[in-house]
Amino acid sequence: MIDWDDVRFFLAVARGGSVRAAAGHLGVNHSTVLRRIAQLEERLGAHMFEKLPSGFRLTEAGGEILELAHQMEASSHQIEARVLGRDQGVRGLLRVTLAPILATRLLMPDLADFARLHPDIEMEILSSGELANLTNRQADVAIRVVYDRSTLPLNLHGMKGPELFSGVYMSRARLAAWRTGARDPVRWIVISIHGIPEWAGEGEVRATGVPFRTTDAEAQLVAARNGLGMTTLPCFVGDADLLLARVPGTVLHMQGALWILTQGETRKTKRVRLFTESVFRRLEAYSALLAGQSILRD
């Protein structure tokens, strides 16, 4: 009989393309991965991978069992989710994935309130640039900005929250200096992987310097507050910051709606239901802020 754990290691190597990548993903050492692959090959009587200078490549036999391995993985996740769905207690782990700026600049007080209200729920907030995967059970709940619901996997269940808008902002001090004719250049401040959005435009203030690039939203915000130039920010960030002002002549842009997403039987657990209902209420309360309507800006 094939050991599912051996298949997990096989999938990790197939996806990562190397033993090192698989070991990092699974949180084990290099030798453990090699031992598990060897066990699987011995049971099946065939080599699963070909070792190349660039990494590990599936052999013909490995390619043949790859789809079956994916099916085993999906079945394993379904079993876990079904058992979890029967758990109606509020004690246990609750993993929530969301963008860092949503966590730090909007929802953290509400997440803290929920944790205090339910002290037996062990919360894990996964606020990194790459959102965790619900289907693979990396998280129980995802809070995501979704422009088109049809782009989401069919197995995800969601509660649609308010729409999220962004605008163009610069520091009040820098805007005041521009109005008095200051000659130092105004730069676009951009996150490197995104660049300047097509919708942003420059309004009444024209960019005259080379772009200033950052790799994360927090650095982007701090650069704008320090007067380097103008940048696009979610309205809930830009409007709430007393050091920033909207750039005159620019428009708001709808990024999508905030969705609270769960997967399969997971949504039926009591702690997940309590959390999703609580966050949905808080997002509804923030709807004007998210739409850029809560504060009259100059």
Automatic annotation (TrEMBL):
<protein>
    <submittedName>
        <fullName>LysR family transcriptional regulator</fullName>
    </submittedName>
</protein>
<keyword id="KW-0805">Transcription regulation</keyword>
<dbReference type="GO" id="GO:0043565">
    <property type="term" value="F:sequence-specific DNA binding"/>
</dbReference>
<keyword id="KW-0804">Transcription</keyword>
<dbReference type="InterPro" id="IPR036388">
    <property type="entry name" value="WH-like_DNA-bd_sf"/>
</dbReference>
<dbReference type="InterPro" id="IPR000847">
    <property type="entry name" value="LysR_HTH_N"/>
</dbReference>
<dbReference type="Pfam" id="PF03466">
    <property type="entry name" value="LysR_substrate"/>
</dbReference>
<dbReference type="InterPro" id="IPR005119">
    <property type="entry name" value="LysR_subst-bd"/>
</dbReference>
<comment type="similarity">
    <text>Belongs to the LysR transcriptional regulatory family.</text>
</comment>
<feature type="domain" description="HTH lysR-type">
    <location>
        <begin position="2"/>
        <end position="59"/>
    </location>
</feature>
<keyword id="KW-0238">DNA-binding</keyword>
<dbReference type="GO" id="GO:0006351">
    <property type="term" value="P:DNA-templated transcription"/>
</dbReference>
<dbReference type="InterPro" id="IPR036390">
    <property type="entry name" value="WH_DNA-bd_sf"/>
</dbReference>
<dbReference type="InterPro" id="IPR058163">
    <property type="entry name" value="LysR-type_TF_proteobact-type"/>
</dbReference>
<dbReference type="GO" id="GO:0003700">
    <property type="term" value="F:DNA-binding transcription factor activity"/>
</dbReference>
<dbReference type="Pfam" id="PF00126">
    <property type="entry name" value="HTH_1"/>
</dbReference>
